Each structure stands twice: as C-alpha cells, then as structure tokens.
Amino acid sequence: MTLDSGAMSPSTHRSPEDAPSRTGQQDAPNPSGTTVEPPAAHLAAVGVGIEYGPRPGERGGATTAAVSRVDLTMARGDFVCIVGPSGCGKTTFLNAVAGFLPVTRGTLRLDGRDIPGPGPDRAMVFQHASLLPWRSVLDNVTYGLELSRSMKRAEARERARDLLDLVGLAHAADQHPGQLSGGMQQRVNLARALAVEPEVLLLDEPFASIDAQTREVMQVELLRICTERHVTALFITHDITEAAFLADRVCVFGPRPGRIVKEIAVSLPRPRDQKIRRLPEFTALVDEISDTLHGAADSALPAGRPETEGAR
Ligand SMILES: Nc1ncnc2c1ncn2[C@@H]1O[C@H](COP(=O)(O)OP(=O)(O)OP(=O)(O)O)[C@@H](O)[C@H]1O
C-alpha cells in the first residue's frame, strides 16, 4: 500500500464494538434490566499528579508540579489526542505512561497493573526521528529487535521489510537516513516503533516538523496502521485540526499543572480520509476544541496579561 493514496482500505473501518470508550463510563442497566459491564480499561489514569524534584544544583529545592489530576480511561484500540497550552504537562504525562517517570499521586495502570518502567508493550514516537545515520533504513527498523534479542536476524529483517512496506518505504530499505526527506525519516521512525509490536503507541508531536501536505498523508496512514494492528494510541499535538482528524476523543489540558478540562468525543465516521475535513461537523469540532483550549488558557491568566502560548 502506498502512502500517496488519500483513501484508506475498507479494512480500516471500525465496528460498533470498537466504538470509543468514555472516561467515567458507568455500568448501565440494559433494557432487560441486567447491568452491562463497561469494557475493561486497557490504560487507566486515576487522579494522576506528577511533580519534578529540584533541578540539579538548584538552590532552595523547589519542586515543579507538572500534572495535577489526570483521569483518563482508554480501551484497547482507542485513539486519544491530547492538546493543551505549552508547558501544561502533556509530555510529562506521556512520559509517565511510557514508564520514564513515576507518578507522584494517583494511579496509572496498564491492563490493571501499575506501570513499573519502560517496556516493549509501549513505544514512543518523538517529533524528531533520531535515526542512526550510519545504519541503513532497514537496519534502523531492526535496531530495537536486535537490542531485545527477541528473534533471529533473518526474522527481524523480514518483519522490518513488511513494516517498511506498510509505511510505503520498501524501496528505501537500503538507503541511509541522510538520503531521506523529513517525512520519510518519520515514516522509518514509525516503522521502528511498530517493529516491537507495541500494544500502545505514544506519539509526542510526531508530525510537527513535517510539511503540511505530507503531514495530512501521514495522518491517514497512521490511522490505517493503528486500526489494522489494533494499536492503542495516545497522541500529543498542538494542531487542533490534526487532533480532530485523528482522535476518537480529544482531551484538552488546562494550564500547568495540567489536568483534563474537557474530554471531547469525536463522532466523525471511520475510515477517515481528507474529504472529512470539509464536513461542517469537522469545522464545528475544531471550533469546540479551540474554544475549550482558549477558555482554559484565558481562565488561568491574570487580568491584562497577554495570552499564553497555545495551540496553533
Ligand atoms: N526534568 C524536568 N525538571 C523540572 N521541570 C520540568 C522537567 N521537565 C519538564 N518540566 C516542567 O514541567 C512542566 C511541563 O512540561 P512538559 O514538557 O510536560 O509540557 P508540555 O505540555 O509537553 O509542553 P510543550 O507543549 O511546550 O511541549 C513545564 O513547566 C516544564 O518546565
């Protein structure tokens, strides 16, 4: 499948059973009077607060409260986008889910278990691809598999070739990162993250440094890949239209210390293609996210101060 096609395959359609879960969903009686169990949470954050200790060499020993009280429940296969003002704690929260940071308060669980640290069940995709320049594209994709020694070399290379095919870069397997455009490098980055077959993809502004046209193509491809592989995705972005296009739900963070001020369900049909951006529902959704974001930022400002850096 090429990355140049705007359309997604029919297999990307989500069935009603895959409908987005809702935070705070309660057991509800069905018409026959019995209680319907909500789907078991795959990822569950309850009252999560995260503080940083004093920076090394800092006098006075002040801590920084980055995240105050985040409640978020995700079912397997959910795609949740987080938007919020700069410095509100989005990356901090993502890093805690990745297992790079401990939570200070509350609980953060994956499949009912506290997150003890990083693990192969989660993979991060950052804004910059950070590929190894001396390795070929194929060898960059196999890198994580080599480190984990989870399979034989031939098997790892076969998987890497499949993934390069998936992201439309089969033809570039023997090239080196320096020979690729920024968008192509980010596709390799995505393939590398997928190589370890993570259950959860954590993406921190992965398309922020890619040109607008390539970004829109990548968004469609990311949705297709996550749906085909039933990957749970938590995606940070400053781009409101990107959040609206990708998400089952958009979580709007308020200013630091961050918490979710509103969780907005996205009812746009799937599979999504570029045409969806022209729907009035899409425009209304973008407006709702924008209003929430700016409302949250404004409420945190002392009167007379200019607005803090917000979403683009
Ligand atoms: N290692 C650290 N030690 C102390 N404070 C930190 C550290 N990392 C981040 N912070 C602070 O925590 C707060 C949240 O940072 P974070 O990077 O999570 O925000 P963000 O919402 O991802 O920002 P942006 O949108 O600009 O990337 C900021 O005030 C930041 O300065």
Could you provide a short overview of the structure?
This protein is an alpha/beta fold and 312 residues long.
What does this structure look like?
With 312 residues, this protein is an alpha/beta fold. The protein is 30% helix and 21% strand. The strands form 2 sheets. It has a 10-stranded mixed sheet with strand order 7-6-3-4-12-11-5-10-9-8, with helices on both faces. Strands 1-2 form a two-stranded antiparallel sheet. Strand 9, helix 5 and strand 10 form a beta-alpha-beta unit. The structure holds adenosine-5'-triphosphate. Adenosine-5'-triphosphate binds next to strand 4 and helix 1.
Mean pLDDT across all amino acids: 84
Instruction: Report how far apart the termini are.
Output: 32 Å
User: Which band does the percent of strand residues land in?
Assistant: 15-25%
Largest sheet: 10 strands, mixed
Total count of strands: 12
- Percentage of residues assigned to helices: 25-40%
Question: What gyration radius follows from the Cα positions, in whole Å?
Answer: 20 Å
User: Which stretches are poorly predicted, pLDDT < 50 over at least 5 residues?
Assistant: 1-31, 303-312
Sequence of secondary-structure elements = EEEEEHEEEHHHEHEHEEH
Strand order of the largest sheet: 7-6-3-4-12-11-5-10-9-8
Structural class: alpha/beta
Tell me, what's the shape?
Answer: globular
Figure out the total of helices.
Answer: 7
Named once each, the bound ligands are:
adenosine-5'-triphosphate
